[in-house]
Amino acid sequence: FQPKLMAGKRILITAGPTFEAIDPVRGITNLSSGKMGYAVARAAREAGAEVTLVSGPTALPTPHGVTRIDVQSAQQMMDAVNRAIDGQHIFIAVAAVADWRVANPSTQKVKKTDGEAAAKGPELQFEQNPDILATIAARTTLAGHPYCVGFAAESENLLEYGSAKRERKGIPLLVGNIGHHTFGQDDNTIVLFDEHGHTILPQAPKLTLARQLISEISKRTSKHSLF
Ligand code: C5P
């Protein structure tokens, strides 16, 4: 009998895009489909973990046995993660979080006007969203902090940017998507960056890669303080 790799572990995952309101019916979002994050949640559950998935708006069904918390904005995602983080062994940030939100969203639908103002369009101001992953990675509690895994979608120089980003975020493992055409696709190619360097996981369906990732995380966390 082989015990499941993640039996007894609690894993918190973010997935999907965020949606930043401009007014009650409009907003700013991105092309993340949530497929990779949902695949990671499914793979973690299959490996025996207790999985909580904090998800931005997606059209995907909840993976079997996974607890899902729906949010829209980056701030709501941050709040949901803060509420759920205590007691988690692993935090995997897969969501494509908006870096900025509209600072002055309108409480009423913005109306079209005539003349010069209409031609110019409304003026939006932006303010920075919290970096959820960096916030959790920097958190220290008496119980230690969860093993944090980040994702990166770079359009160029992934190998260079990937290892720099891992260090900047203060995390032990960063997963890079090769190319930025992965949004919405079923396949992906990923690179794992850790303190030893990088490893490429060749093109495969997202669920296959997610299972490989969970097994890589399991290897690396067997030495982690919380385990
Ligand atoms: O800095 P960048 O956005 O490229 O970093 C991507 C990684 O950081 C992903 O793991 C993403 O989920 C996470 N992130 C986050 N909160 C943000 C921005 C990114 O958790 N505000």
Topology:
Elements: E1 10-15, E2 20-23, E3 26-28, H1 35-46, E4 50-55, E5 67-70, H2 74-84, E6 90-93, E7 100-102, H3 115-120, E8 126-128, H4 132-138, E9 147-153, H5 158-169, E10 173-177, E11 187-194, E12 197-205, H6 206-221
Parallel strand pairs: 1-4, 1-6, 4-5, 6-9, 9-10
Antiparallel strand pairs: 2-3, 7-8, 10-11, 11-12
Bound molecules: cytidine-5'-monophosphate.
The site of cytidine-5'-monophosphate has 14 residues, from helix 4 and strand 9.
Structure described in brief:
By secondary structure, the protein is of the alpha/beta class.
State the helical fraction: 25-40%
Output mean pLDDT: 91
Output the CATH class name. Alpha Beta
Number of discrete domains: 1
Radius of gyration: 19 Å
Characteristics:
single chain; 227 residues; alpha/beta; Rossmann fold; 8-stranded mixed β-sheet; two-stranded antiparallel sheet; 6 helices; 12 strands; globular; binds cytidine-5'-monophosphate; FMN binding; EC 4.1.1.36
Please tell me about this protein's structure.
By secondary structure, the chain is α/β, with parallel strands linked by helices. The protein has a single domain (10-221), classed as Rossmann fold. The chain has helices at 35-46, 74-84, 115-120, 132-138, 158-169, 206-221, and strands spanning 10-15, 20-23, 26-28, 50-55, 67-70, 90-93, 100-102, 126-128, 147-153, 173-177, 187-194, 197-205. An eight-stranded mixed β-sheet has the order 5-4-1-6-9-10-11-12, sandwiched between helices. Strand 9, helix 5 (158-169) and strand 10 form a beta-alpha-beta unit. Helix 1 packs across helix 6. Residues 14, 74, 93-95, 97, 99, 129, 131-133, 150-152 line the site of cytidine-5'-monophosphate.
